[in-house]
Structure formats: C-alpha cells, structure tokens
Amino acid sequence: MDKLDFYKHQIENPLIDIINTRAQDNNFERQWLQLHIPNRDLQYALSQLSTLSLKLLQQIATLAPVSEAELVTAMSLDLGVISKNINKLSRLGFISKLNGESGLAYRPTKTGTKVVEVQGQLSDLLDKQHTELVDKYTPEQLTTVATFLQDLQAGH
C-alpha cells in the first residue's frame, strides 16, 4: 500500500469519524455537568451556557477576583466576547460583581464554585483517559503524530 492509500484508509477515515463525533458531542461537557449536578434549576441554567462560558467560569474561579481586562489577556479573546459571556454568567447566578479599588471585578458565586468543582472532576477523568492513551506511545511517536496533525491543519 502506498502512502496516499495508507493515508486515505488508515488516517483520513478515522479522523473524519473523530471530527463527526466531536461535532455531535459539542455539548459533552455541559451534558456531563448536568448529569452530575442533581439540582434541576442548575441543570436548566447550565443548558443555557456555551462551552466558552464554561471555560470563562473556570478562569474566573482560578483568577478571582478578576477584571474583564485580565480575562481578555488570560483567554486571548476580545472584550466584547468576554463581556457577553460575563453578562450571561452573572444573569444566571454563576458569578458576582465586585467593586474593588481597581474597578469592577468578578468572582464565582457558591453555585459557580460548585460547577467549577464538578468541571474539575470531569477534567481529572479526561486527564486519566488521555494519560492511558499517550502512555502507549514514545515521545518520538507522539512528536510525529503532532507534527503530522499540524501539517494537515496548515494544509487544509
């Protein structure tokens, strides 16, 4: 089998399957959180959040108290994107605003802290699964895979 045939049969099809699965599971984190947080009102509030909002909540918990400008830097996002998601997190009761010496800052509420704790449980589970996966390969093999994927991404 030549390299192109190998690519088409052994790499391309599995990649397409992975991409399709990821597209279908785009809400995986939110769904996992809803299953592991029994409060129905909180489950509904979580259903209103995007993956980005959930990542922002984690950053707020990590950096709290934190300003919008600090979040823009930490997440490499535009102020408008941060502001929109902060407003949603605040409206749904996941974060609260503080008026501090250096201006407006944010911190997680008790509810937001609970969500971040459960996110941490999911992160630990995924880290364990990913560790088991990469342990099968040498650093050189992983470097080859990473380089291949970067080249593929750059070419498409």
From TrEMBL:
<dbReference type="InterPro" id="IPR036388">
    <property type="entry name" value="WH-like_DNA-bd_sf"/>
</dbReference>
<protein>
    <recommendedName>
        <fullName>HTH marR-type domain-containing protein</fullName>
    </recommendedName>
</protein>
<dbReference type="InterPro" id="IPR036390">
    <property type="entry name" value="WH_DNA-bd_sf"/>
</dbReference>
